[in-house]
Amino acid sequence: MSEIAGPPRTVAVWCPDWPVTAALRSSSETDSADRPVAVLSANRVVACSHPARRAGVTRGLRRREAQARCPELMVLNRDELAEARLFEPVVAAVESLAPGVEVSRPGLAAVGARGPSRYFGSENAVIGALARELGGVVPDALIGIADGPFAAEQAARRGVIVPAGQSADFLGDLSVDTLGDPDLADLLRRLGIRRLSQFAQLPARDVLARFGPVGAWAHRQAQGRDARAIAARAPGVDFSVRLDFEPALTRVDTIAFSARTLVEDFIATLTAHGLACTCLELTLQTDNGEEAVRRWRHTGVLTAIDVLDRIRWQVEGWLHGSRGARDAALAAISQHSGPGGDAAPGAPSAGITLLRLAPLETVPTGAHQQALWGGSGAQDERACRALARVQTLLGHGSVLTAVVNGGRDPLQRTQLVAWGDDRSPARSPDEPWPGQLPSPAPTVLLDPPTPARVLDDAGRAVLVTTRGAVPMPPARLSVNGAAFVPITGWAGPWPVEEHWWHGLTGGPGGRQPAADLSVLPARRFRFQLVDLRGQAYLALCSSGPDAATPTWSIEGIYD
Amino acid sequence: VFDSEGVTASAALSQELRLAQVRPLAELVAGRLAGALPVADGLASILPDGLRRGSTVEVSGGIGTMSLVLALLAGPSEQGSWSAAVGFPLLCADAAADHGIDLSRFALVPHPGADWTTVVGALLDSLDVVAVRLPRPPARLTDVDARRLAARARQRGSVLIPIATGRRADGTGGWPTADVRLSADLAAADGSWSGIGSGHGRLQQRRLLLHANGRGAAARPRSSTVWLPDRGGATGPAESPVSAISTARISTARMSTAR
Question: Is A199 touching B (CB cutoff 8 A)?
Fold first, then answer.
């Protein structure tokens, strides 16, 4: 051990491309082993698999760009809850070797190396034991040991052991991008600083003056003098808070909602003491005394929203992490740690009755305060809180927001997402979408469409011929069995030539020819109809191959 | 003597300065509590004072109800206000966006359930505009509920827009506490949609005759003809044949692809 107490030796476990692994598992794709995969959030690539990276896909690309570089790319949406849930067995496996695991984010966990390396004899033996534990849980995990969590993360990404005291040299060769702050890295590069060693040579005072607390913190990391000891020092005052649930709660959103005030008070108390939390311990307890303790570390400062996210992740991981991968983890753990292993992981048997937050590590914060009268941000937050409250009252999916989606008919173009879910449209509405309905759009959509009857002057059903002509103009309309109303204006027929091949194809892949090509699919035509009362409708006429038996329905109302 | 005068003068000046600093804040607070929310251009003729905060604006059920509601929500939404529609059927996202509603600040609660007053109350607490349509089957509206919700809106400075479905011809049966009542009529007996013929054209815009009456400042009945929806899906005053609203991009883009 050196004279000056440096950052403690730390083991980091890093699962490469964890968002991809999690998204693949939750999408239950089977033949995806060597397919290029990318995970997108808000239309940007956040992670991609190795084959995709080889094809030129990188983080931050738009969906279209990524698909252009790699046409066979499988695109999945990001599912953060699944990431947290599936990472739970990995954390449990690490925890079976040493207590005090810190999760930086799903996909990266760290634990102090001193205890286990004494127990196993050497750091190499620790890695061996960890690799055995993780082998049955996660297909691909890299392990590294270095001084301090930051250096350990970098070591894990390269799968190396950095000898004690050499972390600064190890970090020196790395690019400034590894600091994980794109703005700072960009600025540094423009100043001619490309390596962490160059950044580390700058005087600390000047760095603080020029880049503020965030820059100073990054500077300390670049020097290998990681300020964050693993839970080294608890703050002097007891800031920990607890919340009892009566009755016990079993849903993620209700727990997160109930904890909201507590978390805000927790952060406000810390702020009042001039402190910000960088690492916190979150404890959940059930009626039957089961407990889930997890340490959450944040690069930077944990805000109330970050804390709530972590509560959500931990609750989700604990309540629902017991399926699939958990069983393998359980088997592995109980083998190793004997009877004690049963109590640690596994889904709880009762609702959650207690939530406790304890700040393990705090840093002095700048004088950051909310605006006195609350900016527009305060209004947004109030509105979001009210909507979250209604969602809690009525259940998930009761509060919806509408998103304009890409598509040709109004029903395709309207995408409803539950409050708080990802609002990025499934298809881009900015693409041309030739053949879409002209504006204005109907204000009310009917899903499923309401049946209707449209008759001509002689009282026969109006039909559209196979050539798309209307021999007898529509004269009367009855919606859903109501009385007939004369039609004063109509436009159409506009043929709908979308997905007519559905139901035609034989094989599952859609590649085999239809069994009977003589049976043509039903043809569909759109009409706009205005009745005598001034009500306008968007109608759909679908007629069989012989055009003799049309079925009419109303898809939308121009109310 | 000069010294003391100088001191008082500078004290008065600094007080003036301080007042000048406080004034915008005071206006901000007053505006939050007592001001009015803007309305879309086409509705300015019928609601010249905008949507007064704390008021209840009833929209009578009938033709054009949904367009009128969307038009009412559009003005505040363009100014960054939050709004919600409770108990409405499936709304078309395109129509709402064309009217000018910012969809990221617009929430839908299609099925508020039996406890709909709690839901509406919670939303009135924190959102600026809440449109309500009573849940279909039972959900009778009692005077007590209506009064409670109106008081909630008044207290929090939000606007309640109920849809009166059971209103009779003599004016009874509407929302009991409405400050302003809006209703829409066809502007012409021979059909108010333009752009559509018999087998040709397409729906383009509709002329509606809007009526407003109520109590207090809105006691004088007003009527106005508007394009609702106008070309491009928004609202426009009917006097000017070409609307100033810049949704031409959408219209032309769609027209060129229409068959």
Answer: no
